[in-house]
Design goal:
7 helices; homodimer; about 240 residues; alpha+beta; about 35% strand; three-stranded antiparallel sheet; six-stranded antiparallel sheet; 11 strands; DNA-binding
Chain lengths: ~240, ~240
DNA sequence: GAGTGGTCTAGACCACAAC
DNA sequence: TTGTGGTCTAGACCACTCC
């Protein structure tokens, strides 16, 4: 058993996990079915209990099985679909599509926090940096970005030239490991139609992100993508 | 050390993981910094190497650190934002918002696979079930759903009454543990304006999902949500 | 009370890559 | 050559919870 796993270039734990996942995904084991106890799988796979336990723990965390002491392990009933989306930097997105990226910054200005819209969830006082820019792919509008940066949390941002460096790219490199909330919706182009080069009524994807670190608000950003030619995908 | 962790109701491994995550998230350790070797952390936390190893392995999988034999463990440079979206059943979504769910099925018909649109990625031959329905919240349109079901993979679907049972709900219960691709975009209401009760030019969120199991196509679904009043959120 | 999973240990051997 | 992580073992004790 272990030899076969090794030959396939994966660890024994991965082998056990894949095997059980297969039995669930293929319908051999159905939701509600009992999964053999650890000591039984230990015999089936000829390994120690720790190894079986790790495999089952990972499957439980992924939502495939539910485990309860004494009651044992059962195949879970899926309740929702889960999708993990990776949201790359816009420049990287454009490069990945084979486009040539260009930044067109319309405005950079300081703002009192009290003047920020309520929906931005920025702090009550202090200074913010407000940036309006357009991301271009082969000189055609790809997305509009409206951004607020909390200067109390990121004072170095005041000295940056965001007509050259995209603010998102700079923030990712200089304020790493943040937490964030996302909101994805649909809106009409409206006042952004001119910059985006589309009709006022054109459907656009609105992407908002609120970012903080250690409890402190870092930035709020809203990006508007013309509906034709852009979509988020996930697996 | 362990006693403190236990008092907080978490395992020693979780304690170590949280501690290191804190040092990264708060900026004590920055991207590129060396993380102490396992045998050093073993001494700091007064535990065995296995426990430290599990904690670091989880952090590596989550993308917080990168580990290489001999070279050691370093704090990773985040490249993209990752967001996990939970996509619940529409009925559950409406109930969670305090609405009363109702299904309004417009059409259920059989279709030859060859007549399905290319974008649905359905099999080349065989029979499909095509369903057009509207999901209502408090009798107001919440979303339109266009669905194709591969009857070769899910023959029982032919006998279901999808004017009563929402097809998504039934499929989740009867064909559990599928794999899926997702696509989220923005479109104008267009021909769906009447059913949705919005203007033809209204911006709507388009949500598509292609589902398969064990290599076999199960279903394709496209849902259209009026842009005002609906958005996907993720953490 | 007994069977299940949750966690941890001390030690081992191996694989890899930097030196 | 050697320090690092990757993986596994055999055993232990504990915490649940069903009977």
């Amino acid at each position: 058993m272990r030899e076969a796993a090794r030959a396939a270039g994966r660890s024994l734990e991965q082998h056990i996990r894949a095997e059980i996942e297969n039995r669930i995904m293929s319908g051999v084991w159905n939701p509600g079915d009992r999964v053999p106890a650890e000591h039984e799988l230990m015999i089936e796979f000829g390994c120690s209990r720790m190894t079986v336990n790790r495999a089952l723990s990972v499957l439980a965390e992924a939502g495939f099985v539910e485990r309860r002491r004494r009651a044992g392990t059962i195949v879970a009933r899926p309740r929702t679909h889960m999708a993990a989306i990776a949201i790359p930097d816009i420049g990287a997105q454009i490069a990945a599509r084979g486009g040539r990226y260009r930044l067109d910054t319309q405005a950079v200005r300081r703002l009192a926090a009290s003047d920020a819209p309520e929906t931005a969830r920025m702090p009550d006082d202090g200074a913010l940096l407000s940036i309006l820019c357009c991301h271009l792919s082969d000189d055609r509008p790809f997305a509009i970005e409206q951004r607020l940066i909390n200067l109390a949390a990121v004072p170095q941002a005041a000295d940056m030239d965001f007509t050259v460096t995209p603010p998102g790219t700079w923030l990712l490199a200089h304020v790493p490991w943040t937490e964030a909330d996302y909101r994805i919706g649909a809106v009409s182009a409206g006042g952004n139609a001119g910059l985006l080069g589309v009709d006022v009524a054109a459907a656009c994807l609105s992407f908002e992100r609120w970012t903080w670190r250690a409890g402190e608000t870092i930035t709020y950003v809203r990006q508007i993508f013309p509906g034709e030619g852009f979509a988020l995908t996930a697996g």
